[in-house]
Specification:
Shape: globular
Order of helices and strands: HEHEEEEHEEEHE
Number of domains: 2
CATH architecture of the largest domain: Roll
Radius of gyration: 20 Å
Strand order of the largest sheet: 5-8-7-6-9
Bound molecules: fe (ii) ion
Distance between the termini: 47 Å
Low-confidence stretches: none
CATH superfamily of the largest domain: 2,3-Dihydroxybiphenyl 1,2-Dioxygenase, domain 1
Helix content: 10-25%
């Protein structure tokens, strides 16, 4: 655990006999809001190595760790942003669960158009392009049919974005996006 600040180690217990935590009654309606600083996504896929190669090629992710049944990938900063886990044989894509995972890009709609051209030139299945009033979304699928969205915000102020999204009831209109090559 070298390198981990002391405070972060407190309360950890590796392998020692697990005791059931004592109940401390919280006041009713107490909310402890997690302060989320980053998210990561973990997906079941048919073949983690095949998918990892696709993620590296299409989204530029780099492999940071791998095990017999998984590959961890990073966009470049964090130890992992996406984990690909071997699904059971014959597993099918279901109707419940993840609908899509959105990735807000740095840049504007022209940067999104360049990414659109890149996806098309790699033969990636692009599902739709959508105007959300606060940004433009470009939806596509990985080799197992997991849907992703690359989106470029056109309203860059978050307070204004929340206001517009609420006022227009989370709009989702098809939009023609011209790919740039
Ligand atoms: Fe989205």
């Amino acid at each position: 655990m070298a390198g981990i600040p002391r405070d972060h180690r407190r309360g950890l217990d590796h392998g020692r006999r697990r005791r059931r935590p004592r109940r401390h009654p919280l006041k009713e309606h107490t909310v402890i809001k997690p302060v989320v600083v980053r998210t990561h996504l973990s997906l079941f896929v048919r073949d983690p190595e095949t998918s990892a190669a696709w993620y590296a090629d299409v989204l530029g992710l780099e492999v940071t760790a791998r095990g017999p049944q998984w590959v961890f990938l990073s966009f470049g900063r964090k130890h992992h942003d996406i984990a690909l886990i071997q699904a059971e044989d014959g597993a099918a894509h279901g109707g419940l669960g993840l609908q899509h995972y959105g990735l807000e890009i740095q840049g504007d709609v022209d940067d999104l158009r360049r990414l659109y051209g890149m996806l098309l030139s790699k033969g990636v299945k692009v599902v739709k392009t959508t105007d959300h009033k606060v940004g433009i979304g470009l939806y596509f699928e990985d080799p197992d049919g997991n849907r992703f969205e690359l989106f470029a915000e056109t309203v860059t102020d978050d307070d204004e974005g929340r206001r517009i999204l609420g006022e227009h009831n989370a709009p989702s209109e098809p939009v023609e996006l011209e790919p740039l090559y």
